[in-house]
Amino acid sequence: MNNSIARSVLQDNHERLIDQYKANLADVCALQLTLNDEVLSHVAQAFALSDADHTWAKEWISDTATIFRFLRHHKFIRSFALEAVQTTLIWRLNVLRLSTIPSALFHCLPPPICDPLGRPLVFLQLSELLTCEQTMMDGFLISLERLRIHLRSLNALNDKYANHEIILQCVVVVDLEGLSIQSFNLKILTWFMKEVVPRYPGMFAAVFLLNYSWTYAMTWSIVKCLLPNSAVARVFFPSREELLQYCSASALPSNYGGALSPLHLVEDPLNSDDQKNCASVSSREWCMPAPNIRLPETLHRQASSIFIPPRSSLNPFFGYPTVASLSRPHVVQQGRRRKRDLLLTLSVLWWRRWGARIIILLFLITVSLTRKRVRGVTRWILGIALSSGNTQ
């Protein structure tokens, strides 16, 4: 485990990220132009988007930091990033909706409070999340969406005051106090890594885990196997003194050794009254306020289409991603026909046909090799015993 905060590593990562942003800004703008002119028009026509949905989708595409994070997540390969953004856009229009607007799970410290590299500090107290799985999933989604909006609002303020230092990430402090190993939900973590992170890539510069005990060592050894190496390198297990040394007392709540008020009394931009009370039941429009930005409600609306898994028995284009319209059930929109989708489908079908037999064969081979090795070791031990007996 990383038991201390490697400030030099975080500094190098931050500088590298800013350099990548500046070097690829032209490509990001070109990608946004393609998304606006081609992708959004195609999606709007295919799914018959309302004006509110179209405006909401356009706001997301115009978030330069978000599009950059997608491009960086896909190794700056334009075609991969373009496909990921389009898939995420459709996902947002269909999945990013809730029957009610819950409070965000994250607690973000208000500006100008930040870490030494100018990034917002976000706190997550896991002991308060011992609720049903669906509530936690909804809370994570709304938290990340509000955090995205908050980062954009900070960048808008920086532009307003001629401060051109872009804020691309935040630092998350996770408090493990009061959380037992028995309450740890591996399903939530798997869902978060597979379903959420690809749609909100690269938002966390570092994750600091506080109030951990030796019982978490075994859990971490399992969890880190599910994470990529780049993510594992950003996870730290500092003591409160090390966290205070990194952030300074002026940037931490008093219950974490700082000079600020206790965390629950510190203003939270993610759970402000403006964000909680801007839902309109009659118009079903909702906004997450940012400077000069109003976003229409998407979390309240019904989905206009549904995504059909590539290998679903209901998919008429088996093996390829497909979207069906709910308002026009007979209209089925086929996704891109890629060679890798064909190869993946053929591999899945081949494994379904022969997978069980291969597993049995490998098991038998392993048993046979193990028996041979055991026999060899046994003979070697007996040989040593006999030779020593003869010597005596």
Any key phrases for this structure?
392 residues, alpha/beta, five-stranded mixed β-sheet, three-stranded antiparallel β-sheet, 8 strands
Write the layout of secondary structure elements.
Elements: H1 7-47, H2 51-61, H3 64-73, H4 78-94, E1 107-108, E2 121-125, H5 133-160, E3 170-175, H6 186-196, E4 204-210, H7 215-223, H8 229-232, E5 235-236, H9 240-247, H10 273-276, E6 305-308, E7 322-325, E8 332-334, H11 339-391
Parallel strand pairs: 2-3, 3-4, 4-5
Antiparallel strand pairs: 1-2, 6-7, 7-8
Walk me through the structure.
This protein has 392 residues and is α/β, with parallel strands linked by helices. It is 50% helix and 8% strand. The chain has eleven helices and eight strands. The strands form two sheets. A five-stranded mixed beta sheet has the order 1-2-3-4-5, with helices on one face. The protein has a three-stranded antiparallel beta sheet with strand order 6-7-8, with no helix packed on it. Strand 3, helix 6 and strand 4 (204-210) form a beta-alpha-beta unit. 22% of the residues are buried.
Silhouette: globular
Number of helices: 11
Q: Which regions are unreliable across 5 or more consecutive residues at pLDDT < 50?
A: 276-303
Rg (CA only):
26 Å
Major sheet: arrangement of strands: 1-2-3-4-5
| Helix amount | 40-55%
